[in-house]
Every structure is written in C-alpha cells, then in structure tokens.
Amino acid sequence: MQGVPSKRDDAAGKDGARRPGAGEGTPRHVAIIMDGNGRWATKRSLPRVAGHRAGMEAVRRVVRAADARGISFLTLFSFSTENWARPAEEVSELMGLLKFFIRSDLAALHRQNVRIRVIGAREGLAREIVALLDEAEGLTRANTGLTLVIAFNYGARAEIAAAARHLAAEVAAGRLAPEAITEGLLGEALPSADIPDPDLLIRTSGEQRISNFLLWQSAYAEFYFTPVLWPEFDDAALDEALSAFAGRKRRFGGL
Ligand code: IPE
Ligand code: IPE
Ligand code: MG
Question: Ligand 1, residues 32, 34, 39, 204: which to mutate, most atoms within 8 A of Cβ?
Fold first, then answer.
C-alpha cells in the first residue's frame, strides 16, 4: 500500500518485534531537535559552550532512558548544515564536543549493545571527525539494541537533493526509467533508507519549527514541543513526551 512503505516492518529486526521495555503505545522511532543549549548557558551567565557541554549530559541521559523504554531508534539532531553560519569559535567547539563524545562514550555505548548510525554530509567535515564517525558505525554495526542515529552536518533539503542527483544519474546512464521513480525509490535513495520514519519528533526550547530536519521522513510524525531547554531534558521530560504520543490518534490520511 502506498504511503506505508514496507521498510517499516523490516527495521526493528527481521520480525519487526518490539524491544524489551516497549509497550503498546511506545514509538519505535523518536527523533529530537536538541535546542536551547545557548539560552540555558546565557541564563546562567555562562559561555554558550557550557550549554553545549551540559547538552552532552542530556544526550547521555536520553540515550539511557530511550533504551530502557524499549525505543528502537533514537535520532538526535546535533549539528545542522546551517549551523556553519555560527561564529567559527562555536563551530569549532561543537566539532570538539562531538569528537570528545565519541572518544569518551563509544566503548560504553558498544557495551550497551547500541548501534550507531550517522546521517548527514561527510563532505566539509575534518578527516579526523569522519574517521571517528566511521569508527563508531563500524564498531557497533552488528549490535542489536537501540539504534542511535546521529544527525551531524545534516540538512534535509541537501539530503533530498543528493538523492535526486543520484536518481538523475541513474536515468542519464540508462539504468532507470523516469516513470520508475516512486516515493519508495526516492526514500531508498536517502541515507535513512533502512531506518523507519520517526513516529515522534520532539523539539525542546519552545521553538516550534523543523529547521530543515528529516523533512521527507517526518511526513506523518507526531510533533511534540516543550519549553524545556535541552540541557534540562531528563527522564521525566521524555516520559511526558511519550505519554502525549500515546494519547495521539494517528490516521495516516484514513479514518
Ligand atoms: C542546540 O542549542 C545545539 C545546536 C544547535 C548545535 P543552540 O545552540 O541552538 O541553543 P540556542 O537555541 O541558542 O539556545
Ligand atoms: C536546530 O537548531 C539544529 C540543531 C538542533 C542541531 P537551531 O538552533 O540551529 O535552529 P534555528 O536556527 O533556531 O532554526
Ligand atoms: Mg537553537
């Protein structure tokens, strides 16, 4: 059936089984726009980087909490293609924190059976960062627990344009007929092809916009906005979002 791609049934494992801890209303995939680090720091008269550091603690917390609640996929928006517009010093601090996070947490995440995936452009990233991202994905590839999707140097429009370029090249090479380009084929050309669409999309800090995140994949996501600033996002805040989600009635255009 159109609009309900078959990858939904494949993604959680061959049988699509729920993870331990998941209940009837548990979303399979939660995606989070982690926003408000800067405001959190400014409120405390601290430099913005202190907010990003505190945000890293929140990442650790939410990974543990999502895992314990039987969520299968957790996507975290950690650096957007538009974030390059920030002052060079802040960009460099954000790059430094990603390196720090992978170096300090990769072994523990691997022990927790977490599988790491990275979406976003590798072009434009320092070689050292690309190597760390590759290492994280490579080491955890066969893990069967929570899939942690790190959206880094990620922009949804760029990702869709890249998929269109790829399909156009296939057509130009005579390997693909234009009529064969369907929603399914375009979805398969995205780096998230093997990840089910997000069920619940959370944005912290009170902003109510999508900021070029998962535009294609969020077609039927439930949105949840909270004024909580990302460094303060904790288990209780996640549980509030999950219970709001459990109360939603999804219709996917039907009745
Ligand atoms: C989110 O916090 C982290 C990134 C976007 C990298 P911000 O840095 O956007 O914090 P605010 O929105 O300025 O408070
Ligand atoms: C979105 O937050 C990007 C990330 C959380 C990584 P921003 O703070 O960059 O978004 P805008 O600029 O407020 O839309
Ligand atoms: Mg922000």
Answer: 39
Is residue 91 situated within a structural domain? yes
Spatial separation of the C-alpha atoms in residues 217 and 122, rounded to whole Å: 20
For residue 105, indicate whether it is catalytic.
no
CATH label of the domain that carries residue 204: 3.40.1180.10
84 lines ligand 2 (CB under 6 A): no
Is the shortest distance between the CB of 83 and ligand 2 below 6 Å?
Answer: yes
4-55, pLDDT tens digit by residue? 444 443 334 434 678 999 998 999 999 999 999 999 999 999 999 999 999 9
Alpha carbon nearest to ligand 1 atom 6, residue? 79
Distance linking the first and last C-alpha atoms of the chain: 16
> Which of 138, 133, 113 lies closest to 123 in space, CA to CA?
133
Task: Quick: pLDDT tens for 148-180.
Answer: 999 999 999 999 999 999 999 999 999 999 999
13 belongs to a structural domain: no
Tell me the C-alpha distance between 82 and 80, whole Å.
5
Full domain range(s) for residue 109: 27-155+197-246
Q: What is the pLDDT of residue 17?
A: 75
Pocket test for ligand 1, best of 43, 56, 204, 205 (most atoms within 8 A of CB): 205
Rounded to whole angstroms, the Cα distance separating 99 from 136 reads: 11
pTM above 0.90, yes or no: yes
